[in-house]
Amino acid sequence: MASVPAAPSVPLTPAERALRDSLLPQEFRDVHLYAFTRKTVFSDGSSRIDHPLPIFAVGSILKDTDHFSKLLTIGFAEASTDGQNPIRQYAHESEYDYDSDSDLDEFEEVEDVRTPVASLSSKGKVKEENVNEPESPMRMEGGRNEKSHRVFIPNIAHRTLKACIFYLYTDKINFLPLRSKGSAQRRLAFLTTAGTLAPPCSPKSMYRLAEAYGISKLQDLAYDAIVSQLGPQNIVTEAFSSFFARYDRLREHAVSYLSQVYSDPAVQEALPDFVDRIALGCLPHASGVLRSLLGLRVTLAPPSRTTQPIRNIQSEQGVHG
Length: 321
Prior knowledge:
Strand content: 15-25%
Number of strands: 10
Mean pLDDT: 79
Order of helices and strands: HEEHHEEEEEEHEHEHHHHHHHH
Shape: globular
Structural class: alpha/beta
Distance between the termini: 127 Å
Radius of gyration: 27 Å
Number of helices: 13
């Protein structure tokens, strides 16, 4: 009887590897990534990025990505779970360089009480959805605290980072509507995708993460999600935003599209206000976008009809006295 050849070995997907590792007796989610979840706005108009929460991840899968491989090699902040070496509760000034990150829940502090390390007062009003995450559990083994690998990431939102980790596991991503599309669309997206799709995130926030971490495929997905949501109703707001100004690829697309829909009533209604604000110096980052737009408009404008010169009839017919 002829022997049946063995089936070729098929490499496991990241999700399958995570399931395999979950069968092991030790804690397989060996990396705890901490990231900020909210932007607290104080009564004087100032704000602070704060309230970090953990994401429990499988280090062996994260190491497939160059950025996380380097981070997990040199970036560990090992600490026991007994409360020593606590995670910092707020971002330092200028540490978080994306002030309008929509993946941060916005929180209004009623009383201007700024506690530097402890969690902020619970008195306040949350403008957007709160993301409830479990606190880091204390793992006991053999009557002692087991040390866990903890990595603090101070410049990426928790929601964005969680969506990125899920993408690295499954190759699936779920982008939210842009904030410029209206808060109603974002709320509906949260309600309709909860529990059924990948963790949601802002495509702009993910574009920023993917560009910083060198994950080009994810960056392309975020780019496509951003530009697909641009229309006459929001192109002016997006084109002159600080986010579009910092990325050449997005800025060039926005200028090109804005030139195409320049005559649309929605564009004509929104544009004068932004031009005035740029002229007053309120939007210094947007001056380059305006110059590019004007230059493109001049280049694409049809040539003007040449005016016929006025003939000097007297010189042709002579002067009669």
